[in-house]
């Protein structure tokens, strides 16, 4: 069985690498949070067999990592991941001048303050209750259901559970229906924290490729029919990170294939409302099959600090979710729910703000990329980011060179399984234009260092979260 280390590295990706290069790749996994501190690595002998290299090579690799403080070795206790004391800093302690491109999220909508003020009487009226809200406030579930109805998916409030964000909703679904050892179909690339959640619940990944041009529908269907995954996690609208949107006919065919294979589709609609100028609006994927589970969130259309999302599912699954939820939380905060009720009553204002901000951010990134030779920016009709093509497998090198220049830029493999996608990086279009312009200057400087062969050897990369 392939170790997690080799799965992350990608056995095909390390062929021909020197011991130093291999150590650098492992160090990148540690610094990027894909290998966790304290995690046990395979023995030198087992590692050598997996990657088909000599024992002396893997001994040299672990020795280099130990010298730099990235692994610790105890006789009889194996090799475990560690961090040098002078390398790691908490996320909140990062240099204030650093620009963080690991977070693809805008600041709050201008209407948030007024919505908060308007929500206070609603909150005050709830003081006589217990304060716990396992299912969610009825008026908020009604508002979310109404939004689905407006988008062409008939929905009743009793098909909705309010959660503390979409990722919280995914974990609730997996806690209720998860099966350790089963397979999960995932897009490659995809949202990193969804991969982590699936791993945590014991799933084995079946990747299917997505690029800026969309999905390989034949590959999706063949993977579902041959692999019979228990679940499939998809982002069909303004896919994170490529920005692609799955057309309606393909949604219907994928839903039918999943239904025939007994695969539960978990659809992440966190980015569904982030349209700039796509020019068309698909129906929710759940309109193609009643069994589809849909996750949504206020974080991208209102504010990341508003930790509120929802699950839409059939009534039988809703009952299972409600039975499971008390084992790890007793509901979603009432203040956030009251604010969300107010915000959802004026979706045109919310979406107009999102469109302006994303359009300005996209233009700022495009202007910066024009000055970086060899890097290609694809069209971005909506979504949170652009999926840049570097033209060569240098994503990790670029990420590290960027960090030396005060730019936190997750490498392409952070969004994948198996250490692939080294020729891509995700750049958010969510920052204010002036901040984006400065980020692009730093990215250009890092690119010059990489292309001139002057990129620094792996040093500090303390961020593991990618949003």
Could you walk me through the main structural features you see in this protein, from its secondary elements to its overall organization?
The protein is an alpha/beta fold. It folds into 3 domains: about 5-80, Arc Repressor Mutant, subunit A (Orthogonal Bundle), CATH 1.10.10; about 90-105 and about 350-450, Aspartate Aminotransferase, domain 1; about 110-345, Type I PLP-dependent aspartate aminotransferase-like (Major domain) (Aspartate Aminotransferase, domain 2), CATH 3.40.640.10. About 40% of the residues lie in helices and about 15% in strands. It has 15 helices and 15 strands. It has helices spanning about 5-10, 20-30, 45-50, 55-70, 110-125, 140-150, 165-175, 190-200, 215-225, 250-260, 315-325, 335-345, 345-370, 395-405, 435-450; strands spanning about 40, 70-75, 80, 100, 160-165, 185-190, 205-210, 215, 230-235, 265-270, 295, 310, 385-390, 405-410, 425-430. The strands form 4 sheets. It has an 8-stranded mixed sheet, with helices on both faces. Strands 1-3-2 form a 3-stranded antiparallel sheet. Strand 7 and strand 8 form a beta hairpin. Helix 6 runs parallel beside helix 12 (about 335-345), helix 9 (about 215-225) packs parallel to helix 10 (about 250-260) and helix 14 crosses helix 15. The radius of gyration is 23 Å and the shape is globular.
Short characterization:
It is built from 15 helices and 15 strands.
């Amino acid at each position: 069985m392939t170790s997690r280390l080799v799965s992350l590295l990608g056995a095909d990706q390390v062929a021909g690498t020197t011991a130093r290069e291999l150590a650098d790749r492992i160090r990148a996994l540690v610094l990027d949070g894909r290998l966790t501190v304290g995690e046990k690595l395979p023995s030198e002998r087992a590692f050598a067999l997996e990657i088909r290299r000599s024992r002396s090579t893997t001994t040299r690799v672990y020795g280099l990592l130990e010298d730099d403080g990235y692994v610790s070795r105890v006789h009889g206790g194996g090799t475990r991941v560690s961090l040098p004391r002078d390398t790691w800093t908490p996320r909140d302690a990062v240099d204030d001048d650093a620009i963080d491109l690991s977070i693809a999220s805008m600041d709050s909508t201008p209407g948030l303050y007024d919505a908060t003020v308007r929500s206070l009487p609603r909150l005050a009226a709830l003081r006589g209750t217990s304060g716990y809200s396992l299912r969610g406030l009825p008026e908020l579930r009604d508002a979310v259901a109404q939004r689905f109805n407006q988008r062409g998916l008939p929905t009743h409030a009793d098909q909705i559970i309010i959660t503390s964000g979409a990722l919280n909703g995914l974990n609730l679904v997996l806690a209720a229906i998860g099966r350790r050892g089963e397979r999960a179909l995932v897009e490659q690339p995809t949202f990193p924290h969804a991969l982590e959640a699936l791993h945590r619940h014991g799933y084995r990944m079946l990747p299917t490729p997505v690029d800026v041009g969309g999905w390989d529908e034949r590959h999706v269907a063949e993977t579902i029919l041959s692999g019979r995954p228990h679940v499939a996690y998809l982002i069909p609208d303004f896919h994170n990170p490529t920005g692609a949107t799955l057309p309606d006919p393909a949604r219907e065919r994928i839903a039918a294939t999943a239904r025939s294979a007994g695969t539960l589709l978990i659809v992440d609609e966190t980015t569904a409302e982030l349209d700039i100028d796509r020019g068309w609006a698909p129906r929710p994927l759940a309109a193609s099959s009643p069994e589809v589970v849909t996750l949504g969130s206020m974080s991208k259309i209102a504010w990341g600090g508003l930790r509120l999302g929802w699950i839409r599912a059939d009534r039988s699954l809703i009952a299972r979710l409600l039975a499971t939820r008390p084992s790890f939380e007793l509901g979603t905060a009432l203040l956030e729910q009251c604010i969300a009720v107010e915000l959802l009553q004026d979706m045109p204002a919310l979406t107009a703000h999102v469109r302006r901000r994303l359009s300005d951010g996209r233009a700022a990134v495009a202007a910066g990329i024009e000055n970086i030779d060899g890097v290609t920016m694809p069209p971005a009709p909506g979504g949170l980011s652009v999926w840049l093509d570097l033209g060569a497998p240098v994503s990790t090198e670029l990420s590290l060179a960027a960090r030396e220049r005060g730019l936190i830029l997750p490498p392409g493999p952070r969004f994948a399984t198996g250490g692939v996608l080294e020729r891509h990086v995700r750049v958010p279009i969510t920052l204010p234009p002036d901040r984006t312009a400065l980020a692009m200057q730093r990215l250009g400087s890092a690119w010059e260092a990489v292309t001139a062969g002057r990129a620094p050897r792996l040093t500090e990369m303390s961020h593991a979260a990618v949003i």
